[in-house]
Structure formats: C-alpha cells, structure tokens
Design brief:
Radius of gyration: 40 Å
Strand content: 15-25%
Shape: elongated
Keywords: Hydrolase, Metal-binding
Order of helices and strands: EEEHEHHHEEEEEHHHHHEEEEHEE
Pfam families: RVT_2 (PF07727), SH3_retrovirus (PF25597)
InterPro entries: Integrase_cat-core, Retrotran_Ty1/copia-like, RNaseH-like_sf, RNaseH_sf, RVT_2, SH3_retrovirus
Number of helices: 10
Strand order of the largest sheet: 8-7-6-5-9
Largest sheet: 5 strands, antiparallel
Number of domains: 3
GO molecular function: hydrolase activity; metal ion binding; nucleic acid binding
Protein name: Integrase catalytic domain-containing protein
Structural class: alpha+beta
Helix content: 25-40%
Distance between the termini: 68 Å
Number of strands: 15
Length: 402
C-alpha cells in the first residue's frame, strides 16, 4: 500500500487476507489516501520487504531471549524492545539516518538505553509499603514504556510486569545474579561473633565455632520468663465438662443422656408445623429437587429451669436464585417510627406492651414451589418415598425473612 505522509513516503504491499481489505479498513485507507496493492494468497515473496523485516525482528528476539536465558513467554517484551532499538539504529534504507529522528524530526537521545534483562532495584512508593518494609525490590529490566517516560520490569515475587522511573540499574548483573542473591539471602544464616573478655586467673577453654553458633542460637530462642508447671486438676472436675452439651444432629439427640427432653422438643416442633399447615406430603415432580434439612438443638437456661428447644431448619444454602427464590428482603421497622411511638406514649402517659410471636418464621406464605425431604426421625411409615411440599416459610430458607 502507498502511504502519503508529509515526512516520509512509504511503499508497502499487503498480502490478501479474508476480510482484511474490506469494510472499515478499506474506508480508512481511502480516507487517508492509502492505496492498497494486494498480493496473491500464500505468496509471501511478493511482499518481500515486510517479510524480511519480520524475519529480522524474530531473529533478534530469539537472540535476546537466549542471551538473557528467559522463557518464551517473554517474547512480546523482547519484541517491543527490539523494535525500539531498530527505530534508534541508523538505517541503510534511509542513507544512515535514524528512523525515529526522520519520523519525528527531533534529535534522538541514547542516555535512557539499558542492557536487556539486567538487574534493577525499583523503588516502592510510600503508599504501597509499611514503615518496616523494604524501600525497593529487585526486578528484571525488560524494556521501555511508550506512553510516558519510564521503564518496564518483571517482578519475580508478584509475577507481574510493573512500570517505574525511580530505579537503579545494575547492568553488569543478570537474572542469574538475582537468583543467586535470593538464595544467599534465604539459605545462608549470618554468623555472630561476640568478643569474650580475657581472664588470666581462669583461662577459657576454646570451643569450636559451630558449637558456639548452636549454643548462641539456643540462647537467643529461649525466653527469660520463669516457666510454671501445668496445673493438674482432679478427675472429678473434668466430669463437669462432659455434661453432653447440645447435640449436633438427630443421632446425638436420641443417644443423649437427656434424650427424653430432646424428643419432647422435636415433637413440639412437629406439632407446630402440622398445626400451621407448613407442608404437605406429595410425590416429587419430575425435574424438581428436594432440599435437605437438619435438626438444630438449643439448651436455654431460664429462671424456671433449663429449656430444651429443637428447630427444623432447611439447608437453604443449596437454593439457587431464579429457581428456588427471586427476592430476598427482611421487613424492618425504621428507628424513626419507633421513636415516634415511644414519644407519643411518653407524651400521652400510655403503657407499651411487647409480645413475642412463637414460630414467627412459620407464618409467611411461600410463593415459590419448594420441596423438602421428610425430617429425620419423623418419616411417615409407608410414605417414605414422598417429599414435603412447603406451603409456608421454614427456618433456613432464603425467603423466610419476607
């Protein structure tokens, strides 16, 4: 294609590809005065100038990766740096002129060039570190940024490419030096030498350095705090910790030492569900699934004595939005409304009474079609294959708060 440019006239051939010279690209070329000259498909020799430049770039990328001993995953960074160096190198086609200088009309500078893959100490901004963190981290130089004046680096710790301009380069060191430095920092402990005063009357026996280092390490690890022996309690005090507690499942409840109380609590819960007409036993329709449930037990201490409570809870975490529920919300009164009521009661000298609705969650009607397995321990004989079609809300459902 022929490109008319005020600084440079370039002539290139574009190999024909499906859809490349059609539509928006063709309009773009027509608008900018670019003439497309197509080549025969699968004939790269007709576009020899561009193909030879591609070969030159690939060869230099291969050499840079081999010299730097970097993996092929860095080919993009090596190619960016290669193209930057080509644009800063005198060209025979331009009679020895520098491509970037010809293109921009400005004299180029080489002061910012650095050795590819050299070690660099990149400054860490204050807002990205704490007071005790290091002020710089060791990275690998990869190339130059085009959007702003700066450099591109590979951070081996975070496995990311970072950009920065506040950096100190070590152009005589490469990734191998960085790896050796890291191994030396982690693997070699620092030896500490402590001067020992000389006592003429009591000569000190010489101790090998390795033994002194081990004894010094033990001394540094030990604490000066006086250790007290562990208190050994009599066996009857451990019995207080084995009162049974609250059962975690139905099997533990029926094997509990107070199982009659837990069975009574479960019967009360089932009677409440039956009285409230919470569910019906039906066959599970095709394409539907039944949610699992669980018994939750709580032991409350009251003035009249311990109170055993059992709740049948649906495993609502298995519900899927759009299938088992749509909206999730909980109607809560505003604090401003409560303050108005209290203010009116105080102003008119009225009495306020508070009541508790037993099994409040079970009074809400369900709009969705939800099925649940029969509760453990209360499966109806002869109807074990049936499931519970929930008519009202139950503890654990996503929509139980509505």
């Amino acid at each position: 294609m022929v490109i008319q440019h005020p600084h440079l006239d370039r002539y290139e051939k574009e190999q024909r590809r499906q859809g490349l010279a059609r539509g928006p690209f063709e309009n773009y070329c027509r608008t900018h005065g670019i003439k497309l000259e197509k080549t025969v498909p699968k004939t790269p020799q007709q576009n020899g100038l561009a193909e030879r430049m591609n070969r030159t770039i690939v060869e230099r990328v291969r050499c840079m990766l081999s010299q730097a001993k970097l993996s092929k995953s860095f080919w993009g960074e090596a190619m960016r740096t290669t193209i930057d160096l080509i644009n800063l190198t005198p060209s025979v086609a331009l009679d020895g002129d520098v491509p970037q200088q010809v293109w921009t009309g400005k004299k180029v500078s080489y002061k910012h060039l650095r050795v590819f893959e050299c070690r660099a100490s990149v400054h860490i901004p204050r807002y990205e570190r704490s007071k005790l963190d290091a002020k710089a981290k060791q990275c690998i130089f990869l190339g130059y940024t085009h959007e702003e004046f700066g450099y591109r680096f590979w951070d081996p710790d975070s496995k990311k490419i970072i950009r920065s301009r506040n950096v100190v380069f070590f152009e005589d060191q490469t990734i191998e030096n960085l790896q050796k430095l890291e191994k030396a920092r982690v693997g070699n402990p620092h030896e500490i030498s402590i001067p020992v005063p000389v006592d003429v009357e009591h000569p000190v026996e010489e101790v090998p350095g390795s033994q002194l280092q081990l004894e010094l390490a033990d001394l540094l690890r030990r604490s000066d705090r006086i250790r007290r022996p562990s208190t050994i309690y009599p066996p009857h005090e451990y019995v207080l910790l084995t009162d049974g507690g609250e059962p975690e499942c139905y099997g533990e409840a029926v094997a509990h030492e107070h199982k009659e109380h837990w069975l009574k609590a479960m019967n009360e819960e089932m009677n409440s569900l039956s009285k409230n007409h919470t569910y019906d036993l039906v066959k599970l329709p095709q394409g539907k699934r039944a949610l699992k449930n669980k018994w939750v037990y709580r032991l409350k201490t009251e003035n009249s004595g311990p109170r055993y409570k059992a709740r049948l809870v649906v495993k609502g975490f298995n519900q899927k939005k759009g299938l088992d529920f749509e909206e999730i919300f909980s109607p809560v009164v505003k604090m401003s409304s409560i303050r108005v009521v209290l203010a009116l009661a105080a102003s008119l000298n009225l009495e306020i009474e508070q009541l508790d609705v037993k099994t409040a969650f079970l009074h809400g009607d369900l709009e969705e079609e939800i099925y649940m397995e029969q509760p453990e321990g209360f499966r109806v004989k002869g109807k074990e294959h049936l499931v519970c079609r929930l008519r009202k809300s139950l503890y654990g459902l996503k929509q139980a708060h509505r």
